[in-house]
Write a structure and sequence with these properties.
73% of the residues lie in helices and 0% in strands. With 64 residues, it is an all-alpha fold.
């Protein structure tokens, strides 16, 4: 559950950084770099959350 919370926080930070980049008068590249890093962290943390949700002890059959 911690991975899901961290993925949500990094997604909000990515959106905020991208908004600051697009709304700012001068083109500050720090915001776009931060947005890219936060997007990558969101994908990684979301993948870790979803990989922990898979039940590895049961076989899943197509007939079930």
């Amino acid at each position: 559950m911690l991975y899901a919370l961290m993925a949500l926080i990094t997604a909000v930070l990515a959106v905020g950084s991208f908004y600051l980049y697009t709304s700012g008068g001068g083109a500050n590249t720090l915001y776009i770099i931060a947005a890219i890093v936060f997007i990558l962290l969101t994908v990684v943390l979301g993948g870790l959350f979803l990989s922990g949700r898979v039940n590895k002890k049961e076989d899943i059959h197509i007939t079930e």
